[in-house]
Amino acid sequence: MNVQRAQEIASSPIMANVLCDGQPIYIQHVNEQSETARIYALNHPEEEREVPLYTLTERDQTLE
């Protein structure tokens, strides 16, 4: 995922369908300089972590 799209998702009030390693996640913050995002898995909100943006994928909700 690119920096711009990750920032759009993080700032949007609408929940996007984003995955990291196959798990649905929530993007809390995007770091432009390091191209990373602070995320947590939806089923484990207490487990925050920083991951490279290239590990995030957005699923097209219209296909489901």
UniProtKB/TrEMBL annotation:
<comment type="similarity">
    <text>Belongs to the SspH family.</text>
</comment>
<keyword id="KW-0749">Sporulation</keyword>
<protein>
    <submittedName>
        <fullName>Small acid-soluble spore protein H</fullName>
    </submittedName>
</protein>
<dbReference type="InterPro" id="IPR012610">
    <property type="entry name" value="SASP_SspH"/>
</dbReference>
<dbReference type="Pfam" id="PF08141">
    <property type="entry name" value="SspH"/>
</dbReference>
